[in-house]
Design goal:
alpha+beta; six-stranded mixed sheet; Nuclear Transport Factor 2, Chain: A
């Protein structure tokens, strides 16, 4: 993936989230993905969700709690050596904004095998 392709991926990813298109986002994830997020801990009681079906269930449960969602991509950092893409964005969820970094690690087949989400703690 080139940096230009990484930026295009991030923009499409944000657009799919804005449409609440969970299945479109999931197309990029491996069946055995490990997804770690403080929001997952709050929604499903575990900080790491394992497997594509569990990730689908978590995201659908989380989305049922929000009225609106918009991701505005700020910056994209692609590390070809590690296959890691950091998407730094502003998440506007139900009118509450926070800065987030979603770090996706891609496997040899181009699917996300692990992800970690970091965000600003609300004051």
């Amino acid at each position: 993936m080139t940096h230009k392709e990484a930026r295009a991926f991030a923009e499409q990813w944000a657009s799919d989230w804005d449409k609440l298109a969970v299945e479109r986002v999931l197309e990029h994830f491996d069946d055995r993905v490990a997804f770690t997020s403080p929001t997952a801990a709050a929604v499903v009681g575990l900080p790491t969700v394992s497997g594509k079906q569990a990730l689908r269930d978590y995201w659908n449960k989380a989305l049922a709690r929000v009225g609106s969602l918009r991701f505005i991509v700020d910056r994209v950092v692609w590390d070809e050596a590690s296959g890691e893409l950091a998407i730094i964005y502003i998440a506007d969820i139900g009118g509450r904004k926070r800065r987030v970094s979603e770090n996706l690690t891609f496997g040899a087949d181009g699917r996300v095998v692990s992800a970690e989400v970091f965000h600003r703690v609300d004051a």
